[in-house]
Specification:
Blueprint: E1 2-3, H1 5-15, E2 18-20, E3 25-26, H2 28-36, E4 41-43, E5 65-70, H3 74-81, E6 89-91, H4 101-113, E7 119-124, H5 127-134, E8 142-144, H6 148-158, E9 162-165, H7 172-185, H8 191-200
Parallel strand pairs: 1-3, 2-4, 5-6, 5-7, 7-9, 8-9
Helix pairs in contact: 1-2, 3-7, 6-7
Length: 202
Amino acid sequence: MFVNARQLQDQFRATGKIILPAGARLTPLAVDFVRTNKLAVDTLVETSRPISLASPISGLASSKVQYWFGTTSGVGKAAVLSATHEHSLSSLPVAFEATQLITAIREIRDLVANKNLVGAILVVDHAGAANVLVNRVSSLRAVVATSLASLTHALNTIAANVLIIEPGSMPLGVMKNLVTSFLRGVRPADVSVERLLAEVTK
């Protein structure tokens, strides 16, 4: 897991200190930020239960969209990380392990409920289970990235706020385009979307 300079700035502005998740690494610009400002960096110790950083690192939870990796795919991770410099995008404060999917979904649910988050991106090895589980949460509307057309349709019709990417053999360029399109189009549900969703539960 990499933490960039913007995340450090947000965290330091919100809390006055820098605390990194266990195993996290700083990007070169983040290292420069720490060195230039002569900051002390603390690291959280791994525990037997998932660590939620939403409270001690509230600055990291202020981004409009956050991502979570439940995969070891370097290509999938690169597609998301490439967008962190141009968009309000940071990592979800949940360990990047496939076994933490439920924890990640709960964190997204809570952040969206508190209006600290507009959407999230999940990169997983198997999208089917993630799709079903995310869509069990009434405030979340997930779409599995298969094509730009299907993503655009989901953003326009149901205001999809969770993008699920299953890297597989999908080219890096395609995934980058999907991530960028999601970040540009994600929005809260409006009245028309709420009405459409209500029709399903009748």
